[in-house]
Amino acid sequence: MRITNGILINNSLNNINNNKTNMDTLNTQLESEKKIQRPSDDPIIAIRALRFRSTLSEIDQYLSKNIPDAESWMTETERVLENTVKVLSDITEYCNQAVNGYYDTTNKNTIVSQLKAYRDQIYSDANADCAGRTIFTGYKTDGTLTFTSDNDKKYEITQKFSGNAIGTVNKVSNGLDISGINDSTIAGTDISAIKLPTQVTSYRIRLGYDKLEAGSGATINLIETGESITTVTKTSTDIGAYEPGAGEAYYLADTGELILGKDVYKKLSEANVDSEGNSFKITYTKKGFNKGELDPIQYFDCVDKTDDNPDNWVTYTSRKQDIKYEINFNQDIKINTQGKEVFNQDMTRDLDDIIESVNYAMNVEDKKSRIEKMYNSAKEGSTEQKKYKELLDLCDRELDFAKKNMETAFTYGLSVFNKHQDSVSLAEADVGAKLKRLELNESRLSDQQTTVKKLMSTNEEVNVSNIAIKIKEARSIYDASLAAASMVVQKKLLDFL
């Protein structure tokens, strides 16, 4: 191939241009400290850079938003559960002291007042919120677990049970009534006609609320078969309210209880259970809720019938509502604890039983005190005094039953509130374990963030010292190419003639 001067000159110019391009590239890298300026410079570096940036963006999202938000939510949950455990522990201590006889009659009012205070405290913490979102209400973070004021809402509530929910209750039947007895009527009172106070033990299902709608009644349905059991509506003060026939079931609307006969108890306790462990359900209606009472939409299947127009009724279905946060790549964590998992309705209902037994005992003691005053004011040895003495004997009998029932209530309370405490402690431990897991993920992500940033730097950024050396080399090469080219272009045609 013939090489002409033109070819030499063109090749020299191309080489000079390539050297200048190399110098420009190195200068740009030195000034920007980046290996490439556009994806076409090096597609592999560009693709890796996009992947690193995407990964780092996700890590930043986890570290700066998801994890801190989840941590604050669960920290608040842990604090509330810790307080609840303390309250339940105090209630257990009260029950323990009462069982061991540390409380006499003069202290009963103090017991009732303190237990009522604990009753209010149990659910007041359950309305706690985190950044304006209530933490125990599942997806309904704009609501509260309990009502914050008295209201006239009306709900038809369906509550599901298993056979284990059926317990027993002790009541005094034929309690002494002295409302019409005084010094002017005692002489004509036939003491022998007054029935003896007796102790009655009944099978009972305790509903989630008291002060229910009597007119609406209550229906019991077996879940597996759909069989319905008819109930008879009564009040707790009716004669025989706690003594149903074998095939009967009494609905006590004022106390929120179903009292079962032996045959009904057997049918319900032996009924087949569904996949959730429930065997029957009870539907009842409650209108009007007091401040501090549980909102039924947080606990049960129910229909809001507050509006008289059926078209405006709202149906709520009870279901598991887990709030999950993604805290790492393909890892999420449940941050919420639903109120019904720890603050179940039995907590306050168990307290109500204890308070009711103490109040009943105090009422009988007050009744005995009034009879004693009338007895002491009557003429010694008179017929009136003898009748008062018979009344005192009847009252002592009733008081013995009342004290025994109160002791039983405290004994049961000691056991059941230990269980409530264990349940809440277990939930607290679960939250603590999740916080530990959150902490481990945060540490791992921090390390990963550092690694990704290092890889990004390695992938995109240049070594300034090396580039400075390369620029110096490139400049020397460029100067050499200029010198070499000058030797080629200075020859003329006459030089070859």
Question: Would you identify the regions where 5 or more consecutive residues have pLDDT less than 50?
Answer: none
Q: Terminal Cα separation, in Å?
A: 22 Å
| Helicity range | 40-55%
Assign an overall shape.
rod-shaped
**Rg to the nearest angstrom?**
42 Å
Number of helices: 8
Structural class: alpha+beta
* SSE topology string: HHHEEEEEEEEEEHEEEEEHHHH
Tell me the strand percentage band. Answer: 15-25%
Number of strands: 15
Largest sheet: 6 strands, antiparallel
Query: Numbering strands along the chain, what is their spatial order in the largest sheet?
Result: 7-6-11-3-12-13
Average pLDDT taken over every residue: 88
Description:
The protein is an alpha+beta fold. It is built from eight helices and 15 strands. The chain has helices at residues 5-32, 43-99, 108-124, 262-269, 339-342, 346-377, 383-460, 464-489; strands spanning 129-130, 133-134, 151-161, 167-173, 198-206, 218-222, 228-229, 232-234, 249-252, 257-260, 280-289, 301-304, 314-316, 324-328, 331-334. The strands form four sheets. A six-stranded antiparallel β-sheet has the order 7-6-11-3-12-13, with no helix packed on it. Strands 4-5-10-9-8 form a five-stranded mixed β-sheet. α2 packs antiparallel against α3, α2 runs antiparallel to α7 (383-460) and α3 (108-124) packs antiparallel against α6. The protein is rod-shaped, with a radius of gyration of 42 Å. The relative contact order is 0.16.
